[in-house]
Write a structure and sequence with these properties.
By secondary structure, the protein is α/β, with parallel strands linked by helices. The protein folds into two domains: about 55 residues, Arc Repressor Mutant, subunit A; about 180 residues, Rossmann fold, CATH 3.40.50. The protein contains ten helices and 15 strands. The protein starts with a helix and ends with a strand.
Length: about 250
Amino acid sequence: MKLSQRQQQVLQRVQREGFAAIEQLAESFAVTPQTVRRDINELCSLGLLRRYHGGAGLPSTVENIAYNTRQVLYLEEKRRIATLLAEYLPDQASLFINLGTTNEEVARALLGHQGLRVISNNLNVANILCENKDFQVLIAGGMVRHRDRGITGEAAVDFIRKFRVDYAVLGISGIDRDGTLLDYDYQEIRVAEAMMANSRQVLMVADHSKFTRTAMVRLGHLRQVDALFTDRPVPDEMIPVFREAETEILVAG
């Protein structure tokens, strides 16, 4: 599923301003209002925007985009990010990998490594990594979510806390303008917090749509992230935030 350049620009404008009127968008892109409505309808069907009278605004801050949509949305960008991260990680490393469709691509990109020891609360990631017989894959116990096979709950948190690993590879739903890391599920956040606290380096994977995206639950701040792997340069307005946080930015070409 690939958005057109205009659709991406519409999405970025709404993310930046919070709301965009159809007439203004039509004038900006030199297209008819009907064309803009079609773009907005498609973006709304993907859960990326919400229709309002006369325009479009940001989607819900309490509910994420459906998992099957996220699996194919920005798939090529996610694969580039995953390849870059795989190049960064050495063989014979220990790591946490949490939930998220980008991390599923990370798992596939890591299959060429040797001797990895991986602890995850993501059954999809574990299933992929088990294809490499040289890996040791450990799964956290807890409640399995039907929608994405993620494992959450206090049992998962307790399990993660038993380890101290080289890297935590974390996905995220949104990075606010001030550098706050945001997600939708409190139980999911609790596991990610444990991973951050028990790793020597925190690596975050996020495609460009995550910048300035809002969600309800706070995970932490960019100051806790050593490196961010993404597919585009960060928005100009956020460069000072990354600089102050001393978070390295690695952009997949």
